[in-house]
Design goal:
two-stranded antiparallel ribbon; six-stranded antiparallel β-sheet; 2 domains; Lysozyme; single chain; endopeptidase fold (from Nostoc punctiforme)
Length: 295
């Protein structure tokens, strides 16, 4: 697991707030929530590097850097707040049977009430996946790695977010941004008069800004990336759809919480979409920097 240097000391200190929270666990949670992006904002309104909802921040945010204000967008406040919130949850559900860390993470995702109701991790697919992903990432040894770093992933996500609302254009998009497309889609739609992106044009552009060069088509991008197991998906990973590796027809950028940014189809715009937006989810993969180039 790669932790940006700017946050290593903050995470090391905050990760020792209580026995149930470790620096690795806290880093894994921040990876899952925002990819270490302090300006992250989810479609449902969660804010900052730890993705606090405003109401939760109001009652749990702390002034970590002692500058006189509690700022959800400031990692020096948000990271210790996340650790303190986790510890508060752990204490709140300490009598619930089962693994204490798993229960704590489940409550962070689904609420303490759900964990108490089900006497452990609730049977919600999203929450179970969330817990597995963070625990797997926390237990993963650190190292240089060969896939995109969390910093590169955050850059790609921010780049894609800046393109929200851009029109879909069949064949549109390149390393420089939106472009006119080509003719014709399987249903006969042309992008020749539309400046914008198709699905793989958007992901190509987003990762170009992160100094990683991807091939042009969705299927080629899957081949140029490393598959990610369901429990290890993190923001910035690419989400692919199709019946097989050779027939992949769509790709989006995962942003957390079961959502992605994608350019869906002719007549639409770049937008947030749920991962189950199409029935043929093939898999998730992480771009490999061996394909990188300087921008």
């Amino acid at each position: 697991m790669s932790v940006p240097a700017d946050y290593q000391q903050l995470i090391e200190e905050a990760g020792n707030t209580c026995p149930e929270v470790s620096p690795n666990l806290l880093a894994a949670l921040l990876t899952q929530e925002s990819g270490f992006n302090p300006k992250a904002q989810s479609p449902v309104g969660a804010q900052g590097i730890a993705q606090f909802m405003p109401s939760t921040w109001e009652t749990n945010g702390v002034d970590g850097n002692k500058d006189g204000k509690r700022d959800v967008w400031d990692p020096e406040d948000a990271i210790p707040s996340a650790a303190g919130y986790l510890c508060g949850i752990a204490d709140d559900i300490k009598d619930v049977p089962g693994n204490k860390q798993n229960n704590m993470l489940a409550a962070y995702n689904a609420g303490s009430g759900a964990v108490r109701k089900y006497r452990g991790v609730p049977p919600y697919k999203e929450t179970q996946s969330y817990v597995r992903s963070i625990i797997a990432l926390a237990n993963k040894p650190s190292g240089a790695g060969k896939t995109a770093t969390t910093t590169q992933a955050a850059t790609a996500i921010n780049t894609a977010k800046a393109m929200l609302g851009t029109p879909y254009s069949w064949g549109g998009g390149n390393t420089n941004g939106p472009s006119t497309g080509i003719c014709c889609s399987p249903k006969g739609r042309s992008g020749q008069s539309i400046t914008g992106f198709d699905c793989s044009g958007l992901t190509l552009y987003a990762y170009a800004k992160a100094a990683i060069s991807l091939p042009r088509t969705a299927a080629q991008q899957y081949a140029a990336s490393e598959p990610v197991k369901p429990g290890q998906v993190r923001p910035g990973d690419l989400v692919f759809y199709g019946g097989s590796a050779n027939s992949i027809h769509h790709v989006g950028i995962y942003v957390g919480g079961g959502w992605m940014i994608d350019a869906p189809r002719p007549g639409t715009q770049v937008r947030y979409s749920p991962m189950d937006t199409m029935p043929d989810l093939f898999g998730v993969a992480r771009p490999v920097p061996q394909h990188s180039k300087e921008i």
